Amino acid sequence: MLYFWVVRAIMIFAVLTVIYIALSLFKRWEERRRLGAEYDSLYAGGGATESRDLYIQRGIHSYNGSLRRKLLWGVYLVPLAVLALLILLGYLS
User: Fold this and answer.
1) How many Cα atoms sit within 13 Å of 8 on the Cβ side?
2) What is the pLDDT of residue 54?
3) How far is Cα 87 from Cα 83, in angstroms, rounded to an integer?
4) Distance between CA 62 and CA 64 in Å, rounded?
5) Are 91 and 78 in contact (CB under 8 A)?
6) CA-CA distance, 85 to 87, in Å (whole number)?
C-alpha cells in the first residue's frame, strides 16, 4: 500500500516538474519578446546607448528576481496545499 502512494507521489512530482519547466521556458521567451519590442519602440529613431542584446540581457536579469518568476512556484505549492487540505478533511470526517 505504501509503495502505491510513493509511486503516485513520484509521478505527480514528475508531472508538476514538466509543467513548471514548460511554463518557465515560455514565460522567459515571452519576457525576451516583450523586452525586444520595448527596445525597438524606445530606440526606433536611433540614439540607443546600449545594444539590443545587452538591453534584453539586463531585463532578463531583473526578471529573474521578480515576483512574476517566483509565482511560478505555485505550480508545486497549490496542488500540494489542496492535497494536504483534502487529506486533513478526510481525517477529520
Assistant:
1) 6
2) 95
3) 6
4) 5
5) no
6) 5
CA atoms within a 13 Å half-sphere pointing along the CA-CB vector of 31: 19
Assigned C-alpha cell, 73? 512556484
> Can you give the pTM of this predicted structure?
0.80
C-alpha to C-alpha distance for 24 and 57, rounded to whole angstroms? 17
The three grid cell numbers given for residue 23, joined into one nine-digit string: 511554463
Q: Which residue has the cell 540607443?
A: 48
As a whole-number percent, the residues of the chain with pLDDT over 70 amount to 100
pLDDT higher than threshold 90 for residue 11: yes
Residues 6+ apart with CB under 8 A from 50: 58
Contact call for residues 28 and 60 (beta carbons, < 8 A): yes
List the grid coordinates of 45: 529613431
